[in-house]
Each structure stands twice: as structure tokens, then as C-alpha cells.
TrEMBL record:
<comment type="function">
    <text>Cell wall formation.</text>
</comment>
<keyword id="KW-0133">Cell shape</keyword>
<dbReference type="GO" id="GO:0051301">
    <property type="term" value="P:cell division"/>
</dbReference>
<dbReference type="InterPro" id="IPR016169">
    <property type="entry name" value="FAD-bd_PCMH_sub2"/>
</dbReference>
<keyword id="KW-0132">Cell division</keyword>
<keyword id="KW-0573">Peptidoglycan synthesis</keyword>
<feature type="active site">
    <location>
        <position position="386"/>
    </location>
</feature>
<dbReference type="GO" id="GO:0008360">
    <property type="term" value="P:regulation of cell shape"/>
</dbReference>
<comment type="similarity">
    <text>Belongs to the MurB family.</text>
</comment>
<keyword id="KW-0521">NADP</keyword>
<keyword id="KW-0285">Flavoprotein</keyword>
<comment type="pathway">
    <text>Cell wall biogenesis; peptidoglycan biosynthesis.</text>
</comment>
<dbReference type="InterPro" id="IPR016166">
    <property type="entry name" value="FAD-bd_PCMH"/>
</dbReference>
<dbReference type="GO" id="GO:0008762">
    <property type="term" value="F:UDP-N-acetylmuramate dehydrogenase activity"/>
</dbReference>
<dbReference type="InterPro" id="IPR016167">
    <property type="entry name" value="FAD-bd_PCMH_sub1"/>
</dbReference>
<dbReference type="InterPro" id="IPR003170">
    <property type="entry name" value="MurB"/>
</dbReference>
<keyword id="KW-0274">FAD</keyword>
Length: 395
């Protein structure tokens, strides 16, 4: 095995150039030392989780890439019930390098509710709070108690509470510290990692085998009503099945790559895994669902999905579906710019851009530009990418 991987080896999209220096510390002192040394030497620092929410240039990355190999989960306590007759709350701590779905699986098996609808999301615990991941009516921010971080500016370990984390839709203060004025604006000196590097996350979960089903698609899959309580293990199974039907779960075959083989709690049986599915070679949802003004929403067709939301300034707004906008702007599942293009929309979901097997980052970027411009021309809405871009731009 070569000394350092390419980003294409360790990202779910399977694109990206050679990494100059790759470090995988398995202790807190080693993790902190690697971060501090990179900063002292003035090298670009990329702290990577599962590589699922990033799009990296085809060029070599002349910096340090650190992947946290600490994978510990601890149940800290049983807190008092929040009200008479309520289920007790439990605090669970996980190091940043824990594979996110391993964490969800652990919680469900322990009878801890609050993250079951987030099953199957690629990535790590550390990345989950940077991105404020969410799906099927749950967001990680709703169960985070606090996050322990390394502050690269003050060179101290800090504990950030919810107010300091400033969570919003697919955002956090952690993510925002990479940019001068919001996602994909001019990078700060910390880019392509945050100022605050996640060390450990403490969650507040409900000690219960039941939880509320909060989204229509999931409710239909379970044959229940929205807001009805249901078994969290069955919720997890249903979510995994829905995600698989859309191609937005990891392809287990990526763990045949020696740079990925040791990153899961238990090694997958690749012989029993489904056949390799190129729809799974993606960043997941490539564009965020737009939050627009009520005036903009009124200009959309009547059948466009619209939901009440709050904008970045705290004002009432409307959230619509990026997938709907893309498809109704003329981009069907499987869309390619050219017949022989190695980058395409997923054959299952228009919000997912995929590598069909030989794509480079430049191919993904070209496809994203065409789709974004098509939506802008049709609806006057500019889609915002969800992944972190390293060495590439859409504009």
C-alpha cells in the first residue's frame, strides 16, 4: 500500500487528488499533536471523517489530512425524567472518529431514542455536528448536549454548548468558522477544516424503545400516522430501506479499499453485500433545500413542495425541495451532460450527483454547474451546494 492515499480512496464520491501527508492518530494526545504540528508548520489542514460531504480537486493536496481513529462510545449517566411520567434521559458520549451509523446502531440496541431516523447517513460523529445532519424529521442538533473541541486560535480544549454551536439547517458555528461570510464564501485561514476541531460529542437521548415518527414518507413506510409512536429498531430498519431505495447509503464495497478497511466497528461481509451500485458513489444530497421568501414561493408552481421555515435572519420563510426544482427544470434521474459522461444524476434521485466509475472532480463540477444554472433560469432560485469544496468552485 502506498504511503498516502488519494482523496478518491477515502471519499464516498471517489474523486480527488493525491494527499501529500496522511495521519491517522488513535489517541487524543496523538490527534492533538497532529493538528498542532500542521498549524505550527503552516500547512493546510484537512480533518476528514467518512469523506462523505466533500468534493476535492483532482490536483494533489499539498497539506496534512488527519482522520481520527478514536472510536469510543460511553454511556455517562441516567438523568432524571424531564417531567412526571416521562422516560429518563441518558447522556452518551462518542469520540469524533466513531462511524455515525455505528453510533446509531449502538443507541438503538441500547434502547436510546433520538437518532434512529438518522440511520444510514455516511460519515462520523465529529462530522455530524459540523454539518448538523438531519433526515426524516430528526436533526442531530436536537439531541446534542455539548461538544468538546480543540480551538486552533486559542490553542485550548473548549466545551461548546448549544448557544455557541449556533445550529441551523445544515450549518453550525463549527462549519461557519471555515468561511468569511457563510458557506462557499471566501475561506478563513483555518480552511479546509474548522477553527474548532471536534474531539468528542455528548448527546442527550431518551431511554425508550419508542419514539415519534415525524415525517410522512417514513410514516407511510411503517404504515402509521405522522406523530404516532413506534419501535425505534423498526424505524431504523425502515429508514435504511428507504435510503437504500434512493441509493443514499454507503456502498460497502468501498471498504475493500485498504485505506477504508479498518474504519468500521465490524468488518462488513462483502460477499454478502449487494452488488456494487454506482448510485452510491456520491456526496449524498448535493444541494441544500432552498429557504426562500414568501414572495419567491408564490411564484413557484402550485404543486411545488413548500414548508414553513425560518431564514438565516430569524424571519418567517418557506423551504422548498431542491430535488423537485431540479427534476422540474428538466433534469431527470440518470441525466448526463453527454452520453459518455462519467458523472450523472443518480438513477434513483435527482438531488444526488454520482461518479459512474471513471469521473474526475472536474466532471462532477461541470454537471453541478449545468444543473444549478438550469434551476436558476427556470425558477430564479440559486441552489447552494451542501458538500465542502476543496480546491474547486462552482462560480
Amino acid at each position: 500500500m502506498e504511503k498516502s492515499p488519494r482523496f478518491s480512496d477515502i471519499t464516498t464520491m471517489g474523486v480527488g487528488g493525491r494527499i501529500t501527508e496522511f495521519v491517522e492518530p488513535d489517541s487524543r494526545p496523538g490527534f492533538l499533536e497532529a493538528i498542532i504540528m500542521a498549524d505550527v508548520m503552516g500547512k493546510p489542514l484537512c480533518v476528514i471523517g467518512g469523506g462523505s460531504n466533500m468534493l476535492v480537486s483532482d490536483d494533489d493536496f499539498d497539506g496534512v489530512v488527519i482522520r481520527d481513529a478514536r472510536r469510543q462510545i460511553s454511556v455517562l449517566d441516567e438523568a432524571a425524567p424531564v417531567e412526571e411520567g416521562a422516560a429518563p434521559l441518558t447522556h452518551v458520549s462518542a469520540t469524533a472518529g466513531v462511524h455515525w451509523d455505528d453510533f446509531v446502531d449502538y443507541c438503538v440496541r441500547m434502547g436510546l431514542a433520538g437518532v434512529e431516523a438518522l440511520s444510514g447517513i455516511p460519515g462520523t460523529v465529529g462530522a455530524s455536528v459540523v454539518q448538523n445532519i438531519g433526515a426524516y424529521g430528526q436533526e442531530v442538533s436536537s439531541v446534542v448536549s455539548h461538544v468538546e473541541v480543540w480551538d486552533r486560535e486559542t490553542k485550548t480544549v473548549r466545551t461548546l454548548g448549544l448557544e455557541e454551536l449556533d445550529f441551523s439547517y445544515r450549518h453550525s458555528a463549527l462549519k461557519d468558522s471555515m468561511y468569511e461570510a457563510g458557506a462557499h464564501s471566501a475561506p478563513t485561514k483555518y480552511f479546509p477544516s474548522p477553527r474548532y476541531i471536534v474531539l468528542e460529542v455528548t448527546f442527550t437521548l431518551t431511554h425508550s424503545s419508542m419514539n415519534t415518527v415525524q415525517m410522512g414518507q417514513l410514516a407511510r413506510a411503517l404504515n402509521v400516522e405522522v406523530d404516532e409512536s413506534f419501535d425505534i429498531a423498526q424505524i431504523r430498519t425502515a429508514v435504511l430501506n428507504i435510503r437504500a431505495s434512493k441509493g443514499v447509503v454507503e456502498d460497502l464495497h468501498r471498504y475493500a479499499n485498504p485505506w477504508m478497511a479498518h474504519t468500521l466497528e465490524s468488518e462488513p461481509d462483502l460477499n454478502a453485500a449487494p452488488q456494487e451500485d454506482r448510485d452510491k458513489y456520491s456526496c449524498g444530497s448535493f444541494f441544500m433545500n432552498p429557504i426562500i421568501s414568501k414572495n419567491q414561493a408564490e411564484k413557484l408552481p402550485q404543486d411545488a413542495p413548500c414548508f414553513a421555515a425560518i431564514d438565516a435572519n430569524g424571519n418567517p420563510a418557506v423551504k422548498t425541495s431542491a430535488a423537485w426544482l431540479i427534476q422540474h427544470a428538466g433534469f431527470e434521474p440518470g441525466y448526463r451532460i453527454h452520453a459518455d459522461s462519467q458523472a450523472s444524476l443518480s438513477t434513483k434521485h435527482t438531488l444526488v450527483l454520482t461518479n459512474r466509475g471513471g469521473a474526475q472532480t472536474s466532471d462532477i463540477v461541470e454537471l453541478a454547474r449545468v444543473i444549478r444554472e438550469g434551476v436558476r433560469e427556470t425558477y430564479g432560485i440559486t441552489l447552494v451546494p451542501e458538500p465542502v469544496f476543496i480546491g474547486v468552485e462552482l462560480d
